[in-house]
């Protein structure tokens, strides 16, 4: 049986969304094939492990969670990946074979957790450090898309310090785009900190809101006659498969956090913590696009996946002008909410099958990387003769 660690949570504004996605996924993993170890990263960056973390109710009361879950650290001990408890009497909780990160947002999905997993050398599922980082930064990804000839809307961007130093100049650049515009923090997801701005008088508040979340802000020209569609892509650099398309429905000018994760629940609360995450958002599957436009979206989705060197399952979000049929890539989600299982379910692949394929791809990527040269056996420093040599070295 494969010992699988599922990492989720973290110091991110999408913390709760990650918990929902992870608990969903863990309930659908094949228990005859995988021994699942939940690894919850609290908002203070403390790691916890315990089977009770597979139950959504445990997250109602953090004090209860701390009382029953083990504080742990994941490390490499002579090629064995150990989850070890912290405290006076340290013990090995388990040894892991592979890790499935189900994290969303900056400080986690942006290559941060992937970098740690790369560093200790454990096989993991999903995109690597660079792909994850590119997929999180809306400005750098646009620059990559432009160089690859992938269609994007007109935009401008700036740092918070540049805005404070020259508000008039920044506003002038935004005015040249023409209204309406959409103001976004550069590295967040789940529609956090995003504002639809119809005229200049509302611009200052929108920018201030975005700056609350990030040092970089991107402002995009809004698409008229907008239809938002998403396409999931499954695979790695060798092969990519596109899912059926979804047409996402919104109560506002764009799909909001409310639409995605809260919906019409009374008082805006996740009643019984039973949110379906992105699976509960209002959508039409398949999207109401003609065959030609559908195929165009799917081909662009696979190209985005390839250009950013993504892996596992991703969701690429698109903006379509329903009158002109122009298609624009909005952004990729390298670890999408609910892992986009609802799109693969409509494509004929169950959530359990999707998870199994993701883990298989992760292990395959790890084996392929292991075959590449990463270090040299020879030590070029063995004959090094510095000015002072070893005799001149000082002890701390």
Q: Could you describe the 3D structure shown?
A:
By secondary structure, the protein is of the alpha+beta class. It has three domains: about 1-125, Rossmann fold (3-Layer(aba) Sandwich); about 135-140 and about 145-150 and about 225-370, D-amino Acid Aminotransferase, Chain A, domain 1 (2-Layer Sandwich); about 155-220, Dna Ligase, domain 1 (2-Layer Sandwich). The protein contains twelve helices and 16 strands. The strands form three sheets. Strands 6-5-4-3-2-1-7 form a seven-stranded mixed beta sheet, sandwiched between helices. A five-stranded antiparallel beta sheet has the order 14-13-12-15-16. The chain has a four-stranded antiparallel beta sheet with strand order 8-11-9-10. A hairpin with a 2-residue loop joins strand 4 and strand 5 (about 80-85). It is globular and about 60 Å long. The model is unreliable at about 265-275 (pLDDT under 50).
